[in-house]
Amino acid sequence: MRTYVADLHIHTCLSPCADLSMSPRAIVRAAAERGIDLIAVTDHNTARMTDVVAREAARQGIAFLYGLELQTQEEVHLLAYFDASPPAHAFADKIYAQLPDRPNVPEAFGDQVAVDDAEKIVYVEPRLLLNSLRLDFETAVAWITDAGGLAVPAHVDREPYGLITQLGFVPPGLDLPLAEADGDELPAACHDSRLVWSSDSHWPEAVGRRVTHFTMNAPSVAELRLAASGAGGRTLSVERRLSPEAASRRRT
User: Which of 22, 100, 7, 84 has the alpha carbon at shortest distance from 47?
Assistant: First the structure.
């Protein structure tokens, strides 16, 4: 086993809330500079940018998980992780079909652009990604699990978009071994999950501001599950590396 320093909640320039500077090279460069060796890209309701970031991460020797951040019909943010590109994109296509056909207004919400390996813009997403899906939280978790992925509620204690602040409880019987929080502890309602930290970075300075150390055999969904349970000596622990002030900058 080895210990991976992981930041598993990173947005690219495709997310309208993220800065256009969040290119694949900028993301991977920031991760490498901060000693992070496992990352995941989690754009809102899409996995379109995962492949190009995965290739850049591989070139720099950084492990990668394919992800996206769903917004359920209750306005709960839910992270979905996959080991490989095909299941991630098949799942993302299914999610995109549940996204309202409402056009993006860049002046109001931000640009939604995808770039290639040379960082040239190759696609502009016309549909606003910052929308709630026609999909409830419980069904979303089930869809992720059935697709072979790992569902992790994002910033559960944050208002808005956190599971606890939006629903007030965790629906029983769901497969949620991990939960991300902004605070030092998970809310009592999340007692069946283990706390993880990630940066939720929207600009390069924030990458790695908070991380989780996973001691496990490989950077995979199955190993994350085992680390959550402490199976076979696997462990996880969280670390705050930068203060919110140090990780932020004025955005125009």
Answer: 84
| Contacts (Cβ under 8 Å, ≥6 apart) of 162 | 76, 77, 153, 154, 155, 156
φ and ψ of 180, to 5 deg = -90, 140
pLDDT, tens only, 213-249: 999 999 999 999 999 999 999 999 999 987 665 666 5
Give the residue-averaged pLDDT of 15-38: 97
Q: What is the CATH number of domain 2-240?
A: 3.20.20.140
Task: Give how far the C-alpha of residue 101 lies from the chain's centroid of Cα atoms, to the nearest Å.
Answer: 23
- Domain residue spans of the chain: 2-240
What residues contact 164, with CB distance under 8 A and at least 6 apart? Answer: 156, 157, 170, 187, 189, 190
